[in-house]
Amino acid sequence: MAGGPLRDSSFALFDMQKKRQEEEELDTKIQERRQILESLQQRTDELHVKMKKARDLHLSFDMFLKEEDADRAAQKAEKERKEVLHLEAKLERLKLVHAELMERKQEQQCWIQRHCVYRDLLVRMLRMTKFDDVQELTGHIQSLLHFQDHFYKRENKAHEQVDQLKESLLTLEDNHCLLWLQKNHQMSQLHIEIEKMRSEALSWERQWNHIQETAAKKTLLLGRIKMATLNLYEMTDDMVEGDETLNINDTEKQLDKVKMFIQDYEDCIVKQH
């Protein structure tokens, strides 16, 4: 009997563990289902957002189609308006051109009316010439005017050449005058230099003459000194025996001999006293 309650307790514990295991498995499944539901809810929300965007896009596309039709109509109207403006501008330009042409036509008619008198004059002149019609006469007059213009141009060219030659001549005359003034200035400078050199030459000539005169005087004085020295030497040479005779032009040695003689003579006088 004791084994019966124990067995019942074991069965109860086993059932409890099984229930807990089933509960844990159920909790796991519930958690998994909850995650799946959350994922589905998130996906549903995303689908709702996408559906809303799709509806908005569909509405925008419908509006775009409507706007595109309106834009096409506006573009067509704008194109037609531009074409109308272009045609109106072209029409205005044509009106201006037509007005200018009419004005030129009016001016030509006025010019023809003013110059009808010249045509009448040409007709009267034609009767006095050998020409057959007015065109031939006007051609001849145009030829004469052409030759006149040609000769007039040649005459003007000749006058221009004459003017250029005159200018060249004036330039040459100015250059010649300038060259003449330069040469005169150079000649004046040369005359001044010549006079200066002549004055210096006269000064050097006077100095040279003075030098020559001074040299002549000194030469004369030197000759006198040499003669006096020679006389003294000859006087002392006669009194001194045994001395060799010196050259008459060797004045320095002659003076030395005279000096020696005077010293010897003075020594002798001192000894005697």
UniProtKB/TrEMBL annotation:
This protein's GO cellular component annotations are: cytoskeleton
Q: Which residues form a coiled coil?
A: 19-104, 155-207
Record-annotated DUF4200 domain positions: 22-125
Matching entries from InterPro entries are given as:
CFAP_domain-containing (IPR051147), DUF4200 (IPR025252)
The entry's keywords: Coiled coil
Q: Can you say what this protein is called?
A: DUF4200 domain-containing protein
